[in-house]
Amino acid sequence: QLQLVESGGGLVQPGGSLRLSCATSKNSFELYAVGWFRQAPGKEREAVSCMSAKGDNSHYTDSVQGRFSISRDNAENMVYLQMNSLKPEDTATYYCAAVPAPFISRVQGLCNSAAFTSWGQGTQVTVSS
């Protein structure tokens, strides 16, 4: 399993932006698909976005399509989630996750919390005026 550490959460006004970061020290990080998930109080954890091990395929849940962007830097063992045009309904704890998946080229079918085996501790994002 990977050790994952998220950062970058905080309080932001509606319409604002945040960039979440996720760091791991695993040397074979390039073999892992990665994802961002979120959980709001009283709600189930949901997938936000996932990216293939090579970084050449990504998937977004409909509610963030066009506003959020996932990226990764395999040389630096980092994953990012750029969040723009934030809305109050984006308020949640955001989790970075990873799963060994070196041969999966399309991540849409993988992008659910049950598929991922390594999780960070979460970072809080609050969108409020």
**Quaternary organisation of the protein chains:** single chain
- The helicity comes to under 10%
How much strand? 35-45%
Low-pLDDT segments, ≥5 res: none
**What's the average pLDDT?**
96
* Count of distinct strands: 11
State the distance separating the first and last CA atoms. 38 Å
Round the Cα radius of gyration to an integer and report it: 14 Å
Which structural class is indicated by helix and strand composition? mainly beta
The number of helices is: 0
Envelope shape: globular
Describe the largest sheet. Answer: 7 strands, mixed
Q: Note the run of SSEs as H and E.
A: EEEEEEEEEEE
3D architecture notes:
- With 129 residues, the protein is mostly beta strands.
- 0% of the residues lie in helices and 44% in strands.
- It has strands at 5-7, 10-12, 18-23, 32-39, 46-51, 58-60, 68-73, 78-83, 92-100, 118-119, 123-127.
- Strands 2, 4, 5, 6, 9, 10 and 11 form a seven-stranded mixed beta sheet that branches. A four-stranded antiparallel beta sheet has the order 1-3-8-7, with no helix packed on it.
